[in-house]
Amino acid sequence: MISTIHEASELIRAAFLSVPTVRDGGVDIHLERPKDSLHGDIATNVALLLSGRLRRSPRNIATEITDSLDIPDEVIDNIEIAGPGFINFRFSTRFLQRGLRNLLQEDESYGRLYSGEGKRAQVEFVSANPTGPLTVGHGRQAVTGDVVARILENAGYTVDREYYFNDAGRQMKLLGASIQAQYLKLQNLPFEVPDGGYVGAYVEDLARGFKDEYGTISPTPDIDTFTSYGRDAAFAGIRQTLARIGIEFDQYYSEQSLYDTGRIQKIISALKHEGFAYERDGAVWLDGSQLHLEQDWVMVKSTGEPTYRLPDIAYHIHKIERGYHLIIDVFGADHQDTYPVVLAAVNALGSDTERIRVLIHQFVTLKRGGRDVKMSKRKGEFYTLDDLISEVGSDAVRFFYLLRILNSHLSFDIDLALKQSDENPVFYVQYAHARTAGILRHANAGEMIQEGTDTAIRLLETTEELNLIRQLLLFPVVMQQVTESLEPQRITEYVRDVATVFHRFYQHHRVITEDAELSMARLALVRGVRIVLRRCMGILGVHAPDRM
Description:
Blueprint: H1 5-17, H2 20-23, E1 31-32, E2 42-44, H3 46-54, H4 58-68, E3 76-82, E4 86-91, H5 93-106, E5 120-124, H6 136-154, E6 158-165, H7 170-186, H8 201-214, H9 223-244, E7 251-254, H10 255-260, H11 263-273, E8 277-280, E9 283-286, E10 297-300, H12 309-321, E11 326-332, H13 339-348, E12 356-361, E13 364-368, E14 371-372, H14 385-392, H15 394-401, E15 410-413, H16 414-418, H17 425-445, H18 453-456, H19 463-473, H20 475-485, H21 489-508, H22 516-540
Parallel strand pairs: 5-6, 5-11, 6-7, 11-12, 13-15
Antiparallel strand pairs: 1-2, 2-4, 3-4, 8-9, 9-10, 13-14
Helix pairs in contact: 3-4, 5-19, 7-8, 7-9, 11-12, 12-13, 14-15, 17-21, 17-22, 19-21, 19-22, 21-22
């Protein structure tokens, strides 16, 4: 029996293809959910697409099609033509009730997909230089990467979360020199902060940590010693911060290893050999004209220091060599112009970049009292991701970072995240889950849940009950869309809609009534809501509390 929206959609598509006008029309059949629920559960514009080819009115074509459609009324009980020729379908009550039964049977497996079964995926994210605490911008990338990994795991992929850390560049040496300066300052010795170096409380803390561990050393150690200490200490802090929001990595990939294994030199030689790179003024340049790029790019400076594009090329080639079926890069907006150059070079050297998907997120600002919170890593006085977690909690941090699409700027409202009211979206969703848990707890204490629930579901016929079921049945559809688009904010949008429709149902109907069979039916519906809320919140990495 058909019980899922996917199965119903395939049934409708097959019915369309049995109509000669559609089958011979040479147009794709797109079925989608109307933005306005008054227009039905599924709609298609196929009549409008055929109109241009057949040179006939789309409404006349729509009428001809609907008159010929053969769809069981146990799935669709109403078909109507709207506007210029849209065809709208509304699910039958029996179909919705079957869908709820199917949801309850699948329980915690509801919404799981299998497109990634037997495949391996790698998600690289955060990858911040270990030169200090993570910023709130890093936080958006961290949460996005982790949730993308969870989405892929839900689809059956075996996922490796990877952190690529730059431990071989100029910024690390600046950190070492900055710590050295603060170490000398602690001993009242002459010191000089390097040009472009790091300052502020966290650098002073690193210097104190060095002094506590090594004491006063004379002569003062060289910069490399301070760099190694600062790298390890900063990276330990980064891992601790990420653990606070439930993020752990399977692999940590060192940039230095690319030099130690000879991969960097191999890439330089290959680019030159294939004619993709040349030398000029003592530097090595990537020839943009050979790679369909708008300009040439420096790979190795005249000082002999590689630019960051070069190790990125070597790193991505190694990713592909490791045999992943899907590779996801989550980058900040500062990589917008960089990654096309890297992928062009990777592709030119014979590696398949089709399996690589790059997700770029825009900037984050913090708001408090309607004003921006200052964030300046260079000056050393800045609001860190750790600060944000401490103030609003891990759940709010994760949920709020996923409220907007990645390619849009995110304004994180601290005051809103602290509110314990329906205005706060994460509180609103968690309260809905706590409400379902409370109802089921009360029912269990009164032994209201009994055999016969499956049959009792036929009593769910009110507008609020059926609308709630409709919303629940969308979960597998949403997960399919999110797996294809890798847009995690669709889940936060959806779970808020589930909470809204559930709260509306609860305002209109008592769950436990004097009618035992109706009570069982509504308790089954509440169980369905709880399953979907838990599944969504699990993928988002947000706690689903039973009490609030």
